[in-house]
Model the fold of this input.
Amino acid sequence: MERVFGKPAGLQEQEFHYCPGCTHGIIHRLVAESIDELEVRKRTVGIAPVGCSVTAYNYFNCDVQQAAHGRAPAVATGIKRVLPENIVFTYQGDGDLASIGIAEIIHAANRGEKITVIFVNNAVYGMTGGQMAPTTLLGQKTTTSPFGRDAESMGYPIKVVELLNTLTAPVFLARVSVHDPKQIVKAKAAIKKAFSAQVVEKGFALVEVLSTCPTNWGMAPVEAMKWVENQMIPQFPLGILRDFEEVAR
Amino acid sequence: MAERLMMKGNEAIAEGAIQAGCRFFFGYPITPQNEIPEYMSRRMPEVGGTFIQAESEISAINMVYGAAGAGARAMTSSSSPGISLKLEGISYLAGAELPAVIVNVCRGGPGLGGLTPSQSDYFQATKGGGHGDYRMIVLAPASVQEILDLMYEAFVLADKYRNPVMVLADGLLGQMMEPVTLKEFQDLKIPAKPWATTGVGENERIRVINSLSLQGEGLELINQRLQQKYQTMDQQEVRYEEDGTAEADLIVVAYGTSARVAKSALDKARLQGRKIGLLRPITLWPFPTARLRELAEQGKKFLVIEMSAGQMIEDVRLAVEVTGVRANLFAKLNGAIPSVNEVYQAIMTTADKGEI
Done:
């Protein structure tokens, strides 16, 4: 019988530790499928962040370096400069990339490092137990904004893709979501393209993926998917902001 | 033919690294070490290497982490406040067991401190600095030639132990010029690094560079293994230079710039008939504890010269005071170089009265 669906070679034979309803598993799979389809697994090096996906090295079936909190783009820079033929990607959450690591991501993007960044935005610090993130929505209650995020004293959610879109160097910038099958298909296309930017040696590519955190949001998985659609997307509009192929045309 | 030329200390740090096969330098401007990134920015392209001026000291050390993990000889340099920022990365390098070289051209602190030479980062360099139970070899050159030689040693030791190595200089050593012999391009036996993340290729097993251990006794076992490694370094890598210690009544203990001043001062004291020896630690960690204790057991007196409030004195005391001998301190606090005359006075007083 012909096998039409299976685990991508880009993932190890491991069960995910992620909470029920968390979309890290889907995003891991999309990354692994992209690596498989581009046939680059054997020359890929991933960088695991600090956060829920800190143990990404247990899942991705490629060489991985674990980085200090927020420093993944700097670590990726070091790796890519030593191994320019390799495919180097970071996988980072919103606390890691948009808070403590905001300098590293802006400057890696500005240098046009030929790396791929998968930025998982679930509007909360997941691993540490649901504290406010730079991407937390206004009014959103977290363990460190118990009365809801207040713009007056806590500022506004940071729109990372729009921020990076002010820079000249990046070649691919997109925001996608994985809250329903249609969006998953679009997310896959964007992630694959972000990896292909390295295959054709173009430059810096980042995909922001809106993600759920049912545990820390205090929601059931289905409810969390709806929250992404109804609450997050209006704040973080989906779309491809920059595409090296569009520019070439 | 070995080439003889004049070289500035900071340039020797950079050229020494190049000679040692370092092809990846990541830095950030801070005085008094700016000649290092400046030199690297023009020299690296000549040898097919990479120079990046990072956005911060933090990024620079993490670029080193990535490059070292990918199998390259990589380094960064900075001065005291910048080294404070790198400590997180140094702890990660130690935890993930990555070889790398970090140079501190030390200046006065605390805080922004000043730009003048200092030795007040001894504690930071030798007692951890960053978090966790880690150690690193700390090499302390006292001349431009020794800077060249120790840069090579630093990379060899880093690879040998898969551990960060620090070269601790100061603003005077960085800024002064001396004649040096640029040795023949040394035989670069860079060891194979099968653990490096270069892409799995045809290997079955993936490689992971990591310092996280969440389960069971994992972290305890990792730390036990690390401690064994540090013990091996402590037993095998102690380096120091002695001058006239066998016949001396008083041993002056000093490193780097202080040792240069001490040497001039004790030569002067010897002319006055005093029997003075010099013990100059070249490795500040591991420290020449055993040798100092041996000298203490021979009934010698000790005087430590430091450009700080007295930091190395604590290690000297740990070494000698179990024998009932007291170690004396001459401390130069204000970010200035002690004069030969004031060190000479300290030596004479200690030699004649037993203490200062």
